[in-house]
Amino acid sequence: MWPLRLAWALAVLGVAAGSSPDPSPDPSPDPAAPPPDTASIFADLSPAELRAVRTFLMSRPELGLSPSRGGPLAKNTLFLVELLPPKKRLALRYLDRGSPRPQRQARAIVFFGGQAEPNVTEFAVGPLPRPSYYRPLRFKAGRAVPFAARPVTQLEYELLHHVLAAAMEPLYRLLRDATGFWYHNCSGRCLTFSDVAPRGLAPGERRSWLVLQRFVEGFFLHPVGLEVLVDHRDPDPRRWAVQRLWYNGQYFSSPQELAERYERGTLAVARLAEPSPRQLFSSYEPRGRFATGTPTEVHGAKVCEPQGRRYRLRGNRLEYGGWSLAFRLRSSAGLQLFDLRFNGERLAYEVSVQEALAFYGGHTPAAMQTKYMDAGWGMGSVTYELARGIDCPETATYLDAHHLYDADGPVRFSRAICVFELPTGVPLRRHFDSDFQGGFNFYAGLEGQALVLRTTSTVYNYDYIWDFLLYPNGVLEAKVHATGYIHATFYTPQGRRYGSRVHSHVLGNLHTHLVHYKVDLDIAGTGNSFETMDLRFENISNPWSPGAHVGARGGVGDGVGDGVSPCAPAPGLIPPCPRRYHLAVTRHHENEPTSSSIYAQNDPWEPLVNFEGFLRNNETIEDQDLVAWVTVGFLHIPHAEDVPNTATPGNAVGFFLRPFNFFDEDPSVASRGPVIVRPLDPPTFSRLEIQRWTPASPGPCVAAEPFTYNGTYRPE
């Protein structure tokens, strides 16, 4: 952990930068209509806007678009529609100077698979809510998106299933005898598969290793020892082919070769025990008992709001204490905060999730190939319903999300976001002022609370819980918890070098999680600087005792700003390239809105967004509009206690934004929550003055008795 100081601090924008001219502002609003909240320029597209964009693009004959679902793969389809945020300079003119409202636009991604040279093209579509134009967006790299770099669609998975079913037919007897399950023509005892990425070893390839698993609850923990390499680069699935197979530590060139080895009796067969129909080890069903016998059949502690909510939610604007911000949930990458202010003064223009990566080691071909970049798996679109009382407190406010991602219209994800105030369980600050004679001069404390904005991403096996926490003292925390099923492969003795045996035939593979955030701090404007504070020990003469020396720690500077403090550096398994930075600071450029893209997963060798290129121009970062890019992560060595799922304690990382000489004092002094206790008759302490600015009792959701305090510590 290492503190950094941002002397007046940093900044950036968000989403695919385009070369098209700036859109004109919105037409004059209806004078009779209420003024729109300024936060709405950052609001996600409504279902009506998503439908309008799709209808408009589908109506353009030159695009030749077809529905996404069904039909051939070699066709032109609309893959993704989401908000294209306004350029930063236009947004700031509107927010700060009263300039015209920026025109609302959508980002649309089209897969052009039905032409001689397939490619992927991104468009800006506007103006919303009634679009009339579309313009191509350009990446900084200045080249087209290769068709092989596109994310895998549901249609492509269906076609992969058919190819795999045909390939597995010769292996029916082997799979039935060894596992009790099979792949083709199955009904109740089916195998399924998980795929890994990158899909190949060089640009332009699209070869995926598929891991076969028993299709039972928690199938991620049920590999059967068979992995299959399928080449599916060609838009025509009739040209797809199985290239290699790996079974129980050996490679085979075809399913027929593997089947013949089994029939001849020369194959080392991995025979798996029948899965238990009850209390399956990968299931959440309770089993066993705690030794103490304390009750677990009753509800535990709950969050309550005894006098109602202390935050305000209006559309996509969130307010709490001194905080106000706008937020959205990008289908492409997840939560994004804009225009973060404290007591009306902007601290950050944008704070957002950029990418989540997991690099694995292993002995099987799938394990050694796995380097997940989750934006390429629709990380922001897999925001499934949050369970009331488990994923978020019962008292939370729940919001729906609408995604148009690999679909033929908007899809509503109920309760995808929650907002709630959380008791932290530790005082924000407190002090007991002892009189050192068994009594006290005063006690004062302020209970600890934070407002939480939360969503989740279930990226196949893993579940990420994404939090932004707002504290009353001007501190913002970004945090992510990793849970869900580990990415597991079939156990072989050689695999012990790359993980832990977590069940009889299951290896939990060693891996490193990395999460990338964008932090665009605009403190007292966009002209910010970055500096670090170096500390050193000095041996100085003691001025009040000649001849003695004092070891003093000295620092540099006491400027104003915010500090970025990662709460977990990211050691572990990191490939030598690309380079890893805990923190990188760059100048803001409109054509550098994101540090990754949805195409990086399937073409990491020639990425369209090359973050390393952001740093190579060696620009000055003094008194400029700056962006901080923060990387946090942890090494995960799976163990038996990761069954059935990885638990959240110990598997969370994040960072803090903390004011550094920005305020005259702790801004939480504005809270009316403190309690101050002063004795009126020391040394007897029989009468106390209790000062508080909230009701004497929180109400019926906690102990009904009013607050009391004694404070003495005398011998009995």
Automatic annotation (TrEMBL):
UniProt cofactor(s): Cu cation
Domain of life: Eukaryota
InterPro entries: Cu_Am_Ox_Cu-bd (IPR049947), Cu_Am_ox_TPQ-bd (IPR049948), Cu_amine_oxidase (IPR000269), Cu_amine_oxidase_C (IPR015798), Cu_amine_oxidase_C_sf (IPR036460), Cu_amine_oxidase_N-reg (IPR016182), Cu_amine_oxidase_N2 (IPR015800), Cu_amine_oxidase_N3 (IPR015802)
Record keyword Magnesium present: no
Free-text remark on how the cofactor is bound: Contains 1 topaquinone per subunit.
Active site as annotated: 374 (proton acceptor), 462 (schiff-base intermediate with substrate)
Keyword Metal-binding: yes
Domain called Copper amine oxidase N3-terminal: residue spans: 150-249
Pfam families: Cu_amine_oxid (PF01179), Cu_amine_oxidN2 (PF02727), Cu_amine_oxidN3 (PF02728)
Gene Ontology biological process terms from the UniProt entry: amine metabolic process; response to antibiotic
Compositionally biased intervals (Pro residues): 22-37
PTM sites of type 2',4',5'-topaquinone: 462
EC number annotated for this UniProt entry: 1.4.3.-
Post-translational modification: Topaquinone (TPQ) is generated by copper-dependent autoxidation of a specific tyrosyl residue.
GO MF assignments: copper ion binding; diamine oxidase activity; primary methylamine oxidase activity; quinone binding
Signal sequence region: 1-18
Every Copper amine oxidase catalytic domain range: 302-538, 580-668
Gene3D superfamilies to which the protein is assigned, alphabetical: 3.10.450.40, Copper amine oxidase, catalytic domain
Family: Belongs to the copper/topaquinone oxidase family.
Protein name: Amine oxidase
Gene: Aoc1
